Structure formats: structure tokens, C-alpha cells
User: Fold this.
Amino acid sequence: MRIQLAQRSEADELLGRSPLALLVGMLLDQQIPMEWAFTGPYTISQRLGHDLTAAEIASYDPEAFAALLAEKPAVHRYPKSMAARVQQLAAYLVEHYDGEPERIWAGVDDGKDLLKRLLALPGYGKQKAQIFLALLGKQLGVEPSGWREAAGLYGEEGSYRSVADVVDADSLTRVRSAKQEAKRAAKAQ
Assistant:
């Protein structure tokens, strides 16, 4: 299956081949449209002149990295704070996984173990970790036993709750509709 979260072929191609780009896109996916967030890794790689590596991002001068993300068009609505978060994530990956993000899910015992590893990532709370776990299972074939249960509602088959369910423009529309309905229901309570 081809990743289609950025809804731009060159950005989606990077997400499909680079686990680091996918993790960074998920990290950036807050307070901005999903497509903008998942285009962020591509924009960063274009500005760097090559694909992302955790070691380079972790060791990049923080002010220079923040300026790189703030350059127009900005990678995020809050480029300085998100630059710091991306660098924290990269540093964690270097320290715990030798800069190889795919080692997060390689050889996990089960879905609970994978969720625990994702929860340990800087910038990944419970919801983000569960959504990313669902994305791994639904779109990348990373399916340790119990992954759907560990992903919670985001792991449900046939659901349209999150980026884990976006595989084309139609599913994106369905996810947006479901999110709007959930917001309306929350306000009504």
C-alpha cells in the first residue's frame, strides 16, 4: 500500500520509504492540517538537500534548525517549538535505536510492547502513539499480536478516525467528517 498522507506524490513517496519521515510527520500533526504536517518531512529534506537522518537532525545547531523550519513556507505553525521537538525525537532515536526508527517496531513482543515503545518517544502522548501504532498496522503491515487492541479505537477495522485510515482523497474526507462529528458530539455534552 502506498502512503498518501501528504496528498502530494513526492512527499508521500518520502513517507513511504523513510520511517523517520513518517515519525516526524506524525509528530508535526498537531494544530495544523494533516497534509501540511506530513509534507513537513519532505520540506525539511528538500532544504537539507537529502533524506532525513536522525543523527544529522539531532546534532544540527538548534537555532539553525529552527530557522530551517521557519523559512517560508514554514514547516509548521510553530516552527521554533516544533524544531526543538523534532530534534528531541531524533536525539532519542540516536540514543535508543542507533538512529534507526524501524528498530522501534522490529522484534516487539506484542502490540502492548510496541505501544510502550511509541509512548516513550518525545512528543508522543497516548493518542498519538495509538494512532501511529494503527498506521503501522493498517498501512505498513506491522502487526504484532494484539496490535489492534493496543491501538484502541484507532485500530478498529473499517474505521475512519485518524491518519491511520487515510489511503486516498475519499478516506481523507471521511476521516475529516468523523472528526467534525466527534467535535460536535463533545460540544453537545
